């Protein structure tokens, strides 16, 4: 059984990814399936996530992690 997995992504980013996968002879959807399969098989993310000063993608992950952590901050009273 398969399920439909959807997510939002900026169009310019998807366009760039589509060009890369086309050169590889595959599709962006297939690359996502490969990525998820590899995570399931190994229990690891199949790429290195490293925060660099000029890395806007890693910076976005760092910001997202900080936001999520703020939800669990015990010093806040609701």
> So how many helices?
3
- Count the E strands: 0
Name the quaternary structure.
single chain
Helical coverage, percent range? 55-70%
Shape: extended
Domain module count: 1
Strand content: under 5%
Low-confidence stretches: none
Describe the overall structure.
Helix content is 56%, strand content 0%. It is mostly helical and 78 residues long. The chain has one domain (11-71). The longest helix has 16 residues, at 56-71.
Topology:
Layout: H1 11-23, H2 28-42, H3 56-71
Quick description:
This protein has about 80 residues and is an all-alpha fold. The protein has helices spanning about 10-25, 30-40, 55-70.
List keywords for this structure.
78 residues, mainly alpha, 56% helix, extended
């Amino acid at each position: 059984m398969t399920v439909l997995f959807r997510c939002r992504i900026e169009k310019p980013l998807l366009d760039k990814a589509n060009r890369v996968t086309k050169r590889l002879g595959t599709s962006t959807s297939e690359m996502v399936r490969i990525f998820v399969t590899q995570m399931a098989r190994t229990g690891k993310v199949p790429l290195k996530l490293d925060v660099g000063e000029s890395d806007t993608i890693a910076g976005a992950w760092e910001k997202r992690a900080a936001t999520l952590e703020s939800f669990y901050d015990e010093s806040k009273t609701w």
